[in-house]
Design goal:
With about 110 residues, this protein is an alpha+beta fold. Helix content is about 35%, strand content about 45%. It contains three helices and six strands, in the order H-H-E-E-H-E-E-E-E. The protein has a six-stranded mixed β-sheet with strand order 2-1-6-5-4-3. The mean pLDDT is about 95.
């Protein structure tokens, strides 16, 4: 349940486009991979989040289901913009300091 709460904070900060709070959840060695990109390091991941926020414009994020297995979260989410609705599964992995070390997003 501990990591579910951190993940819920992550999604809340993402939804609110709060880069500083997002960064506070990330390990310096974070990696981000989705259907378009693969990045390593906190600077590149933060910069990519800024690009994503700009591209999305106004959006809503809904968590449909969320599961915790060890230090890994699987979340079924929907991102709704003026142009589209995307269903995504995020896999969020944590390190021993309870920071996010890896985010993998699958569009489906």
């Amino acid at each position: 349940m501990k990591y579910i709460n951190i993940a819920k904070n992550y999604f809340s900060y993402f939804k609110n486009k709060d880069i500083e709070k997002l960064a506070s959840l990330f390990s310096n060695k974070i990696s981000l991979k989705d259907w378009n990109i693969e990045l390593n390091g906190i600077k590149d991941v933060i910069d990519q989040n800024k690009i994503i926020f700009n591209d999305l414009g106004q959006f809503d994020l809904i968590i449909n289901n969320i599961y915790e297995i060890d230090k890994i979260i699987f979340a079924e989410i929907e991102i709704i913009t003026e142009k589209e609705e995307a269903k995504v599964i995020d896999k969020i992995e944590f390190n021993s300091d309870d920071l996010i070390i890896k985010i993998t997003a699958y569009k489906g």
